[in-house]
Amino acid sequence: MNKKSIKNFIIHLWKNPLIGLAFLIIFAAIFVSISGANIRPDSSVDANNQIPQIARQEPGTTISFLKLRKNKQVEEKNIFQKLFFGGEESKFSWVPFYDYEINDTHITLREFTADSSSVNYTPSYITYDLYDVIENSSLKSTSVVDGKGVKEAIAEKYIVTKVFYFGTDKHGRDLLSRLMAGTIVSLSIGFISVLISLCLGLFLGAVSGYFGGRIDDVILWFINVVWSIPGLLLIISLTLILGKGFMTIFIAVGLTMWVELARVVRGQVIALREMDYILAAKALGFSNFRIISKHIIPNVMDPVIVICAANFGSAILIEAGLSFLGIGVQIPTPSWGSIIDQHKEYIIHADKSFLALFPGVLIILLVFSFMIIGHHLREVFKLKSQANIWDENLKGAPVDHL
């Protein structure tokens, strides 16, 4: 892409801010998915660090924690391991508190409780030995940590403050981290499902349209059979047959989205197979595979790209619906649909409705972005087609009419 193309693209986005916003949302979702646990506030596997004492906290809540080292050896993971394994186990247990007192041997916490505003609230205190905070049975510490006394080290390194920007869910997990982890599920299912439907739709549509005859009749019959079955019913049936799980959703959604693509490709190929350059390729003795792959497929990609953009948004919506029904991605793997399902009873509570509204808004934004991109591509390819027709007409017009 040259500088002029980049400049024209930027100008086009400036004139169409909605398209620019759609691209921004999609790129942000891709960045969050690629970064994974490396940028999440809760870097644990599936963002599943549960702290029951801080359940259902409002967005923006700030809570202090004592990092209590676990009594086991925990393997540290690098950036790539965090990405491919969904996170890492924390070396610490997180104990929330309101305030604390520390002396030479012990630290006493006034524990954090969600019902502290109740008239029946009774403060609860818990005490830890200083060395129990910083060591376990496999990690023997001395009285000095990094050149400082234990008391000073605990106050500096083991007492932290966290801000829960999106609040916490009913299990005391950071909602922002759960939503960020759910982005990976939505985009990966959308991508793999579209890829499966693209391969099936292109292959069956191209073979059916190019060869015609009995091959076309058989493939068209199969397309019509699948087309006649309601998509959601077919997905649920495949899920029940193949079993619940992450990989099953890929297959189920992908196997139900190829039909429309195959019908469009078949119609395009039927129109192209009688073109002069296709007949010339046959006369030159080119193989059918070469003609289809080199000369036909590239010329039917414009409507295919538009359909894939729309199917991407549809796949995200279908996955969210299946997870909401409990037959999609299974707990504890986070999915926007399952998060809504877990907190649907809070929608009628004004102060807790954010637990179900936040994932719902994210689904709307991401699906809407892909629909906008699909509509934009459709208009671009339509204008491109009209321009090509106009050029052909000019080429065939008499010189004195130009």
Describe this structure as you would to a colleague:
The chain has 402 residues and is of the alpha+beta class. The chain has 2 domains: 51-164, no CATH class; 175-397, MetI-like (MetI-like fold, Orthogonal Bundle), CATH 1.10.3720.10. It contains 15 helices and 7 strands. It has helices at residues 3-15, 17-35, 79-84, 130-134, 150-158, 175-211, 213-228, 231-242, 246-254, 258-272, 276-283, 288-296, 301-325, 336-342, 354-396, and strands at residues 61-69, 92-102, 106-111, 125-129, 144-145, 148-149, 159-164. A 5-stranded antiparallel sheet has the order 4-3-2-1-7. It has a two-stranded antiparallel sheet with strand order 5-6. Mean pLDDT is 82; it is low at 137-147 and 393-402.
Describe the SSE topology.
Blueprint: H1 3-15, H2 17-35, E1 61-69, H3 79-84, E2 92-102, E3 106-111, E4 125-129, H4 130-134, E5 144-145, E6 148-149, H5 150-158, E7 159-164, H6 175-211, H7 213-228, H8 231-242, H9 246-254, H10 258-272, H11 276-283, H12 288-296, H13 301-325, H14 336-342, H15 354-396
Antiparallel strand pairs: 1-2, 1-7, 2-3, 3-4, 5-6
Helix pairs in contact: 2-6, 2-15, 6-7, 6-9, 6-10, 6-13, 7-10, 8-9, 10-13, 11-12, 13-14, 13-15, 14-15
